[in-house]
Write a structure and sequence with these properties.
The structure is a single chain. Helix 2 crosses helix 3, helix 4 packs antiparallel against helix 5 and helix 5 runs antiparallel to helix 6. It contains six helices and no strands. By secondary structure, the protein is an all-alpha fold. Helices cover about 70% and strands about 0% of the residues. It starts with a helix and ends in a 16-residue tail after the last helix.
């Protein structure tokens, strides 16, 4: 697997011969897209419909779970980035932080999966595909820029999808608990009982 991982990395990593436009797109996806997505989420929370606000909250919770999972894994098992192994060219500064799994891929796929889980069936199918396409593009950009191996991105995608699933369990538990704790749940008598 390591040989395949290295071969894929070297095939996707930008070189000096790579057109500058490709590197610019990869940089935009990697550095500016997360900021743009965050602004869109805040705007949707402020002005969106109830159904899309629920999807954004689900996506944000998934993102938070993914962030925590990646931080925890990196603290326990620090695995170096390609540049630390002397592989390829690194197009953005990353320092010596661990790279497995990819935080960008994990949060992008967590957000995409969380948003799609939060939407009702059949609601906004085009947005679902766009969310996954942008998450995949984010993963590609991290390899293109030389800061992650393909296995880092794949692991990040799996962590992101798993985080959305865990966030979904938490959302469903909160909704069912909220339903049981209505005003009538704490009333000692039935609401239609005659008052004395």
């Amino acid at each position: 697997m390591l040989a395949l991982d290295t071969a894929l990395f070297l095939a996707l990593n930008a070189t000096a011969a790579t057109p500058p436009a490709v590197v610019a797109v990869a940089r935009w996806l990697s550095q500016d897209l997360p900021v743009f997505a965050g602004l869109l989420m805040v705007l949707e929370l402020a002005r969106g419909q109830a159904a899309t606000r629920r999807a954004v909250v689900w996506g944000a919770l998934s993102l938070l779970v993914a962030w925590c999972a990646v931080r925890g894994f990196r603290a326990m098992v620090p695995i170096a980035r390609p540049a630390q192994w002397g592989l390829g060219l690194q197009w953005i500064e990353m320092g010596a932080r661990p790279g497995f799994p990819s935080m960008h891929a994990a949060t992008a796929f967590a957000l995409a999966r969380g948003l799609t889980l939060g939407l009702a069936r059949g609601q906004a199918p085009g947005w679902r595909w766009l969310a996954y396409a942008l998450a995949a593009a984010m993963g590609w950009s991290r390899i293109c820029l030389g800061v992650h191996m393909p296995s880092d991105v794949l692991a990040g995608a799996l962590v992101g999808a798993g985080s959305a699933w865990l966030a979904g369990l938490a959302v469903r538990a909160w909704i069912s608990r909220r339903g049981r704790s209505s005003a009538y749940w704490f009333h000692p008598e039935h609401p239609s009982a005659p008052r004395r």
